[in-house]
Every structure is written in C-alpha cells, then in structure tokens.
Design a protein that fits this description.
Layout: H1 2-8, H2 14-20, H3 26-50, H4 58-80, E1 126-130, H5 133-145, E2 151-153, H6 162-173, E3 180-183, H7 187-190, E4 192-193, E5 209-210, H8 214-229, E6 234-237, H9 254-267, E7 272-273, H10 276-283, H11 295-310
Parallel strand pairs: 1-2, 1-3, 3-6, 6-7
Antiparallel strand pairs: 4-5
Helix pairs in contact: 3-4, 5-11, 6-8, 8-9
C-alpha cells in the first residue's frame, strides 16, 4: 500500500488537468489521471470487498491478487515514462463540414471623375480642375470636350470648402507641371451648419452658422490665390453655381454674394473669373430644390467650362 500511496500522491487534480491538457504534455497528464483512477479503484475494491472474503475463499483472493500484481507494473511504467504516447483519434470534418472558401470581394469602383487620363499625351498641356461636387458632375464630359487639346486632371476628392483647400492645396498640386488651373470653392463655404457640426442646418435657426463666413472666405481665397500664382500656371476662378429655392441648408442669393467676394479677391491677383453663375442661372437649371444637376445639364456646364479653359491654353 506504500507504493500505491506514492503513486496516488502524483495524481493531477481535475482543475490542473483542464488547464494543461491542451498543452504539450496534456495527453500524458490524461494517461496519468486514468491510471491513478484505476489504481485507486483497485485499492478500494481490495479493501472494501475482498478483505471480508479472504477468510471464506483464500484461493480466489490469491488469484485476484496475482492478477493485480501483474497489472500494477504496467500502470507504474506508464506514469514514470513520459514518452508514452496514447492513440488519439482525430475527428476529420465530413464533406458537409468542410469550410467553403469565401468569395473575393469585388474591387471598389473608382468614380470615373476621379480617374486620371488613361493615356496622357506628353505633348499636350496639363489642366487641373479644383472644385466640389458640381465639377465632379461635369468632369467626364469636360475631358471629352478637351480630348486632344489638354490632359485634364482633378483631385480624387470633393474639394469642399476653402478651408479644405488651404489644408490640401499642396497635395492637389503635386509635382506635375500645370498650364491651367481652374479653382472653385463656394457651395460648401456658404452652407449652414448646426451648433454641433450638423450638416445643412436650417438657416433660420439662431444657432446655425455658415461654415465659412464671408470675411474668412475672403481671407482663405487670398491665401489660395497667392499659392496658385506661384505655380506659374494660368489660374481661372470658376464662379459658384446658384442655390435654388427649397435647397436644404443654403439660402437663395448667397452664391451671388460669395461670388462678388471671390471676384474682388481674384482681381487683386490678376486672376480671371469665368462667369459660370450667370450662364447656369440663365441656361442650366438645377434639380428641384437641389444644388446639383442632371447628367444632361452637367454636360452643358462642361461645354462652358471647356470654352473658358481653351482661351487660356
């Protein structure tokens, strides 16, 4: 029984087994646990069941004892030999359980307006158009209008208010040699924002304010004009298009006010203004209660802009 007690003293607890059976020696610990449980069961059986029978049938007890002795060395050997490896059956997934490959996500399509010219002609002048969603809308037909005349580019973003222009103008200019640069900021400057930055807030609310107020707008354009003049390119200021009745977050007539500010600033730097506001007001209606245009009307804007660019090439 001394040997049995020594063997049992090395038995891992169930708690330790759970924390280690997934490790490197988890399988060996499992064997030890099973062996110790077997030894304990035999010990309990011998003590509780067989001892009372020893007096009645000594021969049977002798036979069982010999069998126990023959098994014990194997149990002890399994516990002492860490190289013992049990047979572990690995469950392989069936056909229905085999993981199916995930389909590839379709590549995100690039807005055609943001794409650079496919085959720019090195012998043609390069034109950069900086502007908001209005210029994004007429960009593709503008390239078609100037095909064979100029390579037409634009930043791959909505250029938004003049504050964004100040932050990103160097990135937009890059290191390409520009012959003509057309620029516009306006619809995003004059729109109203809420006190917590809510976009297109109701202009009638006392807490609403224009994103870039007129004085700041003039200062921003002055800085941008100086930067653009340093490129050596011919610069065109493109007027902001009209705000129609019912357009959210903007006031009818504010485009004309901001255009007057822009024209004054640009004239001090010798920069021409192209008059898109007047042309659009008379000839190209916006969508209903919306500052944007249909594709057909965007094409009309593109033709006007292309004519003003040609004059500077």
């Amino acid at each position: 029984m001394t040997e049995l007690t020594r063997v049992n003293s090395g038995e891992p607890s169930q708690k330790n087994l759970k924390s280690t059976h997934m490790g490197r020696y988890g399988s060996i610990n499992l064997i030890r646990l099973r062996v110790n449980q077997t030894v304990r069961s035999i010990e309990n059986f011998f003590t509780l069941k067989l001892r009372p029978l020893m007096k009645k049938n000594p021969t049977m007890i002798l036979t069982i004892t010999l069998a126990f002795i023959s098994v014990l060395p194997v149990a002890l050997s399994a516990q002492k030999n860490p190289e013992l490896k049990p047979r572990i059956s690995v469950r392989r997934p069936g056909k229905s359980e085999t993981a199916k490959p995930m389909p590839d996500k379709p590549a995100r399509k690039i807005n055609p307006s943001y794409q650079n010219p496919e085959n720019p002609d090195p012998n043609l002048p390069n034109v950069l158009v900086i502007g908001d969603s209005i210029s994004i809308g007429y960009m593709v037909p503008l390239r078609a209008e100037l095909q064979g005349t100029a390579n037409v580019y634009r930043p791959q973003t909505n250029c938004g208010p003049s504050s964004k222009g100040l932050e990103e103008i160097d990135q937009w200019l890059g290191d390409r040699k520009w012959s003509v640069i057309q620029i516009n900021h306006g619809l995003h400057d004059l729109k109203y924002m809420g006190p917590q930055g809510q976009n297109l807030a109701d202009p009638k609310n006392e807490s609403s304010h224009q994103q870039i107020p007129p004085d700041q707008y003039a200062a921003n354009l002055d800085t941008l004009a100086k930067r653009l003049k340093r490129t050596g390119a011919k610069v065109i200021w493109c007027e902001t298009t009209p705000v129609p009745n019912g357009a959210a977050g903007r006031v009818v007539g504010d485009s004309a006010k901001y255009n007057a500010i822009a024209k004054k600033v640009m004239s001090t730097h010798g920069i021409k203004t192209n008059g898109l506001f007047d042309f659009a007001s008379k000839n190209v209606p916006t969508r209903e209660a919306n500052v944007h245009y249909t594709p057909e009307n965007s094409t009309k804007l593109a033709k006007f802009v292309a004519d003003s660019i040609r004059k500077e090439l």
